[in-house]
Specification:
alpha/beta; eleven-stranded mixed sheet; six-stranded parallel sheet; 15 helices; 17 strands; elongated
Length: 446
């Protein structure tokens, strides 16, 4: 170890939480102690691990003498506080207490940052301490720091990402094996990708929290979880997945944050943030993100298109991101300086979901007779929506699509505001020759 690391007093690290991620963080702090000291210029001393139950079974890597139920007391004697306990409280109170005591903070708590990040950023700024949160979005993938720092001098136009590994695994299994949604979710649970209660994943809450964080960083504007339009994957069927393949797409749950300049007809200026399943063309880089992997696609004015890809969850990958933040905060303790602060100078308007601009692919059953397509096209035109393509396909496998006297149409629209597209679908559903709207999916990445 370099003499400089021996000459500087050890930095006391407090760990809040000892689940899958916390266990890996504790292990890495211990096993890589010498390497970390060389990178920081001081030893990192794990002084305690706050848990709810000190008697609960733990991984053999955990030194049980470090366990404590007194989280407040632990925070009070730390130089760096690492929070991986999750939830809003007591995490928020403990982090604010740490900041007030002058400790740097590292957190992987996406829910807390999406709900009340500005409170933490403001407190850290006032106290002159660091707050890092690389692990809060996409696990080991370095996306927060590039958006927060590397692209700070550029103008980010769009962030498009697969930021939830559970739903990506489920949709990938549906596409590659033909299994239904419930079966794929059960398999994800058996493999440990999904929790016993998968609601946060399959209903899009997890992805929405990450979308709020990315949008806030990319557009220098405070975006909260409540600002994110959210739709999960529970309505996606095996038929949807099969039809997607027939039309050259795959279905992905996407987190989308866009800067709208107000030049498009009917689309006001501001920031649009949403999470929903979407058809992605197979030629797009995100279409080939398989299994539980994550990927984030960034479009910037000067940098162009950037792709960040890797494991988005799991104890070791997430702990890697946490340790990177710990090293950054520790270096500032040793050498002086401070990490980036919150950037809110833009203060752009947050647009409602109805203002988002997208494309629809609509599958519908209609009477098989002349003039039906003309009626459908007229209904679209009345709402300012134009048709990009119409197909009357055969079902996957070549089987007949519908009963005699019924035809299936597959209509893809040009880009239009969400409000116009949804109104169009409602109007089409009311047409006399339309039997049913079978499926409505957005098309992104084209």
């Amino acid at each position: 170890m370099p003499p400089a690391a021996e000459s500087h007093p050890p930095l006391r690290v407090a760990l809040l939480g000892c689940g899958v991620v916390g266990t890996q963080v504790a292990r890495l702090l211990t096993e890589q102690a010498d390497d970390l000291a060389s990178r920081v210029g001081a030893r990192l001393e794990l002084v305690g691990i706050a848990v709810r139950d000190t008697a609960a079974p733990r991984d053999a890597a955990i030194d049980r003498s470090l366990l404590t139920a007194d989280a407040e007391g632990l925070v009070a004697r730390a130089d760096i506080v690492v929070e991986v306990m999750g939830g809003t409280e007591p995490a928020r109170s403990l982090l604010l207490r740490a900041i007030d005591a002058g400790a740097a903070v590292v957190t992987a708590n996406k829910a807390l940052l999406a709900e009340d990040g500005p409170t933490l950023y403001k407190a850290a700024d006032a106290a002159g301490v660091d707050i890092y949160f690389e692990a809060a979005v996409a696990g080991a993938i370095p996306i927060v720091r590039p958006v927060r720092e590397s692209l700070a001098g550029d103008r980010v136009r769009r962030v498009l990402g697969i930021v939830n590994g559970t739903t990506n695994y489920v949709l990938d299994q549906m596409a590659t094996t033909g299994m239904g949604l419930e079966e794929a979710v059960k398999e994800a649970q058996d493999l440990g990708y999904a929790e016993a209660d998968p609601t946060a994943d399959v209903e899009g809450y997890d992805a929405a929290a990450k979308a709020a964080i990315l949008a806030s960083l990319a557009f220098h504007t405070r975006v909260s979880l409540d600002d994110v339009a959210r739709e999960g994957i529970m309505s996606v069927t095996a038929d949807d997945v099969a039809w997607a393949a027939q039309t050259g797409h795959v279905i992905k749950l996407l987190a989308i944050a866009e800067l709208r300049d107000g030049t498009s007809a009917g689309a006001p200026a501001g920031v649009s943030v949403r999470v929903h399943p979407a058809l992605v063309p197979i030629a797009h880089p995100l279409a080939n993100v398989r299994g539980s992997f994550n990927a984030v696609f960034v479009e910037a004015e000067s940098a162009g298109e950037l792709m960040f890809y890797g494991r988005g969850a799991g104890g070791a990958p997430t702990a890697s991101a946490v340790l990177g933040d710990v090293v950054s905060a520790a270096r500032h303790r040793v050498l002086g300086g401070k990490g980036p602060q919150e950037s809110t100078y833009a203060e752009l308007a947050i647009l409602p979901a109805s203002a988002a601009v997208t494309r629809y692919q609509v599958r519908l059953d209609v009477d098989d007779r002349p003039g039906v397509l003309a009626q459908v096209a007229h209904a679209l035109a009345e709402h300012g929506v134009s048709i990009e393509a119409v197909r009357q396909p055969t079902a996957p496998g070549g089987a007949d699509v519908a009963e005699p006297g019924v035809a299936e149409l597959l209509i893809t629209t040009h880009a239009a505001p969400e409000s116009a597209l949804s109104a169009t679908v409602a109007a089409v559903a009311e047409l006399e020759p339309v039997r049913t709207i079978t499926s409505v999916l957005r098309v992104e990445g084209a």
